[in-house]
Amino acid sequence: MLAASASETTKSGVQRVDVAVVGAGFAGLYLLHRLRKAGLSAVALDAASDVGGTWYWNRYPGARCDIQTIDYSYTFDPELESAWKWSEKYATQPEILRYLGFVADRYDLRRDIRFGTKVTNATWDGAAERWLLTTNSGATVSCRYYIMATGCLSSPKPPEIDGVSDFKGEVYFTGRWPHEEVKLAGKRVAVIGTGSSGIQAIPLIAEQAAHLTVFQRTPSFAIPAQNGPPPADRVALLKSDRASYRAQARDSLAGVPWPQSTVVSWQLSDAERRERFETAWAAGDLVYILTQLWADQGVDFEGNAVLADLVREKIREIVKNPETAAALTPHDHPFGAKRPCLDTNYYATYNRPNVTLVNLRQEPIKSITASGIKTDKRTADLDVIVFATGFDAMTGAIMAVHPITGRGGKSLSDVWTHGPQTYLGLTVAGFPNLFMITGPGSPSVLSNMAVSIEQHVDWVVDRLIAMREAGFTTIEATEMAQAGWAQHMADCSTLTLHRLANTWYTGANVPGKAQGVMPYPGGVGPYRSICNEVVSHNMLGFRLTGPNGAEQCNDGQIVRLQPDVRLVLNMLADMKLPPLECFGAQGARDFLAAFNAARPAGRPVGDVVDGTLPVTGGSLPYRLYRPATPGPHPILVYFHGGGWVLGDQVSDEPFCRDMCRRSGMIFVSVGYRHAPEHRFPTAAEDGYAATRWIAEHAADLGGKPGPVMVAGWSAGANVAAVTCQLARDRGGPQISGQLLVCPVTDCTFDRPSYNDNATGYFLTRSLMFWFWDLYCSPADRTDPRVSPLRGKLQGLPPAFVATCEFDPLRDEGVAYAEAMAAAGVPVEQLKARGHFHMSLTMVDVVITGVSGRVQMADALRRFAGLPSAWREGDVGFRPSQVVAPHEIASAAE
Ligand code: NAP
Q1: What is the DSSP-derived secondary structure letter of residue 886?
Q2: 224 alpha carbon to ligand 1 midpoint, in Å?
Q3: 744-787 pLDDT tens trace
Q4: Is the shortest distance between the CB of 64 and ligand 1 below 6 Å?
Q5: Which of 56, 138, 288, 868 is the most buried (most CB within 10 A)?
Q6: How many other β-carbons are positioned within 10 Å of the β-carbon of residue 567?
Q7: How far is ligand 1, taken at its centre, from the CA of residue 153, in Å?
Q8: pTM of the full predicted structure?
Q9: Per-residue confidence (pLDDT) for residue 13, from 0 to 100
């Protein structure tokens, strides 16, 4: 271990250190330990009189952690882990505070902490490359690096209710609870606020008070903690292999080692869902109920509603007065979109005769008077008011140690006027050598904070060591990297349901605060891997400078893929599959069949019917998907993907089901014949013949007679496009619209997308070459029946062309759309940013493809002359709700 470099005090009384840290809670303590081990001199400054951070201030009755304590612990030192034993599954605030004191003593950290010290000003001195801090005690600190370990929920928000200062009784804030005992016995007490703090405090206050009146504006979901000793099975799991238990937590989504649930709600029966829910209710674990029931509950409105209804049922069971139960039941947000609470006897407390619930939605508070609280309907006389009204979260604690003035005199509050801008939630462009631990834009409060804090501290201190070794003295995020991170944050936000609730996660609890999901919703494991990628890509997005003009800047955007696409591609890369073309045609078909068999078929539709249809020289199988709504429905003929070589009428089943449900149309997926057994132009001719037969038999198939539509994906979109040209030239059938998803349209391979995306995005350039070789000889390749871009484009049906950014076929799809538009065909384009060739059809995995499918279904309905399918209830799917919509450009004039 390197000896710590000494902190020195100059003649003018300025303390000079390598690093100044604000905060002596979980993050500040670990930082001090790591910095000292790295040989960097450091001082921590904290307004409190002892260590503990949030656990120093939040001393209200019932305060406990809501992540199991064996997981809510430091993991950096196995000896520390053995030296401390938690007494409860969810430890109380005093026990957690004792633990942090124990850690401070064990590593002798207090000697580097200045308690009772608040930073009042921090200014970057560009010439000296140092931050200069002034404090409330008058002492000044000069540091090379300034690290905010201020916590996410440390700055209580004002109550925003008139007359608080008029009240003559006692007033307490849960986030600033006194150190002395607060006596509530025999008193008339009010609690305002029913978030986690209120829900923990209310049952204990009710036991002491003569009467408790709870003023509730918005009900929260709460599940029982089922507290007790640490669960034996979890402790045994941890002890059996501590290292792998901790490693799993670090790579998980929430920072707690539960395996990823893969089953989705609609694959389970009602009984199975109820059984899973009851197990979760009995388990008393927020992370468990948020991650283990069914995979779609955090990302899909319907999957979430099933769980939310089951919790509502529990509330009605527990609370005896139906009116009170109704008032306590949340209906304004999906379960988990707002932080759910962990309680002990919360709902049952409302069955006590000394507890009254006031529903502020029906009778808002008018004012606080000298003797109590007045609403529209009542006056409550009170001795004590407890404000459990929450925090100015994520940014409040950083802003509380303002002003922070960066390069060129820029103030952080100005830079953040429209919401926090960060790179990785760790740094801010324009503020060199400033770091935030669990800052906005990092997983922080959507994770087990202990795990996220350790990851941030390790990343930051490792960077400082690396800079010292490389001779750099400043580090700063670039504007481009920061803008890229904002884009990635927005993409992640479309993935989860957090954007659908007004919460402190989004800044909605503080009047006037900029709105937007502040914590990183992409998960702890993915986030960790992104931070590591930044380092392995030569500190991508950072500018580093040093003496004598030394400079390094690898500028760029760390994540350009949609977050779920990134996960899928990483998973595929980890599988280290040989190129598909190595298997041969039959081997590749077998592989695809096995791949599809492991995948859920898709959501239920009204009816699924298999049949065959005649074509010259044989017959083709088809599968028909009928919506559950009353018919007859318009008919769409669908052609699957697979390079004219692979796939069949069921290989795009999840996509067909999803589109059938969304568009309200019959999808008939056709098993056209494949190469190399049936080379060009068989697929094209089969496509045309099948469309004609289906159009002629529309009524027999239960569809609406009249024009049909065609659609396809990849080579199937090629067949669909060609079918439209053949139908125009051969006198029918009438086609009212074409949906082309990532279509093959041309035999030229020199467009940029073929080179930019040649490898790494599943559909490779060499796989496309292989498909072309199997299907079509070079002499035939310019025939419009395989290269429709070379055909006549006038007089084609209206088209919707979807292309994906990271797809070799992107540019030929765009070219086809533009050429059709130029020929007078009404065309809409969807350019799916951050997506790859399979994104829009991987219904069960690529959640960010939903908005694209909504737009495609709506286009189909327009082709069929039907009204839009967006319903008021489909909040998750309405384009206005999508934070980062795919770019849609109407190429039609
Ligand atoms: P919170 O979740 O923001 O809850 C604040 C409550 O006060 C809400 O019910 C809010 O209603 C209400 N409120 C705010 N201003 C009001 C006003 N002017 N009039 C009436 N009601 C008002 O804050 P919190 O309970 O302190 O919890 C914050 C977070 O801290 C938690 O979500 C959790 O992450 C963390 N925490 C954790 C634990 C733990 O178990 N470890 C314990 C406590 C806190 P609206 O919803 O209508 O705004």
Answers
A1: P
A2: 17
A3: 999 999 999 999 999 999 999 999 999 999 999 999 999 999 99
A4: yes
A5: 56
A6: 18
A7: 10
A8: 0.93
A9: 84
